[in-house]
Design goal:
Elements: E1 7-11, H1 15-26, E2 30-34, H2 38-57, H3 63-72, E3 73-76, E4 87-90, H4 96-106, E5 115-118, H5 125-130, E6 138-143, E7 152-157, H6 163-175, E8 179-183, H7 191-207, H8 213-223, H9 230-237, H10 239-253, H11 262-270, E9 282-283, E10 290-291
Parallel strand pairs: 1-2, 1-4, 2-3, 4-5, 5-6, 7-8
Antiparallel strand pairs: 6-7, 9-10
The protein binds nicotinamide-adenine-dinucleotide.
């Protein structure tokens, strides 16, 4: 089946869509990157170029690999550009209404046999599949951020996903050089189900005054050998994203142990959503990040 995937469409040219286009092109797939915003498409291409340059400098890929991969990426501000894709990966904003609308728009455009995948971090694959015209050829392919660096991809079947689609998705991810973990379609899948409650607990630990930002991050880096402290990691993921995943766990699993920490809510309400906003548990506006509490 996977021999049939030659062209990959990516919907959404944000941080994840750019990374997905990057790894697909390096693996030899033709890529069409689609976003509503032409500006996003341009900045995505610049990001991909810059990240591939870094891989050339560190000896991970050659100049020729980079040139060939960049030549395989086309952009399209129009959804019609995806009409000959064999696999389309939706990596647009984490908002169910937006994703549903995208699946509706794609329905008349895609080839009937094309596979439709979503990179959602938290929404139900079965529910999203039901908003598409092909639930049996719909699947979750959940990449980690930053995509070119992280080794893992979670593959999640919806209730209607057929075996051929599952097989094709696994072969596709393997060709990207990533390791697959198969997760069932429950809130947060595996990685976020475990990671986000840990981050939320770190925020409670701060909220209750058990430790300072620095103490908590140092404790987990040196005491548990985590490469990044949980508060630093939360800032990297984005506190808005962390909150939205905790809400999905809380509501989807109906268990009070997943309630988002009020301090996390407060940071999001302040607009201090982490590195992308210049401020979260650390202030990134100076030369070195400084704790904000
Ligand atoms: N950020 C992470 O760490 C991470 C990790 C894994 C998965 N994800 C998931 O990946 C998806 C994208 O996340 P991101 O961090 O790249 O977000 P982002 O905000 O960086 O990018 C989203 C992009 O989608 C585009 N978009 C919005 N509506 C669109 C539409 N109707 N048609 C086409 N493009 C549209 C936006 O213009 C934007 O460029 C989300 O579902 C998110 O949950 C994120």
């Amino acid at each position: 089946m996977t021999g049939d995937i030659r062209k990959v469409g990516v919907v959404g040219a944000g941080q994840m869509g750019s990374g997905i286009a990057h790894v697909c092109a390096l693996a030899g797939y033709d890529v069409v990157l689609h976003d509503l915003s032409g500006e996003r498409l341009n900045s995505s291409l610049a990001t991909i170029h810059g990240n591939m340059n870094r891989q050339v400098s560190s000896g991970k890929i050659t100049d020729a690999d980079r040139e060939a991969a960049l030549n395989r990426i086309a952009t399209s501000a129009d959804v019609d550009g995806l009409s000959d894709a064999d696999l389309v990966i939706e990596a647009a904003t984490e908002n169910e209404a937006i994703k549903r609308e995208i699946f509706g728009t794609l329905a008349p455009v895609l080839k009937p046999e094309a596979i439709l995948a979503t990179n959602t971090s938290s929404l139900s694959i079965t529910r999203l599949a039901s908003a598409s015209n092909r639930p049996e050829r719909f699947i979750g392919i959940h990449f980690m951020n930053p995509v070119p660096v992280m080794e893992l991809v979670e593959v999640i079947r919806g209730i209607a996903t057929d075996e051929a689609t599952f097989g094709a998705a696994k072969a596709f991810v393997t060709r990207l050089g990533k390791t697959i973990v198969v997760a069932e379609d429950f809130p947060g899948f595996i990685v976020n189900r475990i990671l986000l409650p840990m981050i939320n607990e770190a925020i409670y630990t701060l909220h209750e005054g058990v430790g300072t930002v620095e103490a908590i991050d140092t404790a987990m880096r040196l005491g548990a050998h985590h490469p990044m402290g949980p508060l630093q990691l939360a800032d990297f993921i984005g506190l808005d994203t962390c909150l939205s995943i905790m809400q999905v766990l809380y509501e989807g699993l109906a268990d009070s142990k997943y309630r988002p920490c009020p301090l996390l809510v407060k940071y999001v309400e302040a607009g201090w959503v982490g590195r992308k906003a210049g401020r979260g548990f650390y202030d990134y506006r100076g030369e070195t990040p400084l704790p904000t509490r």
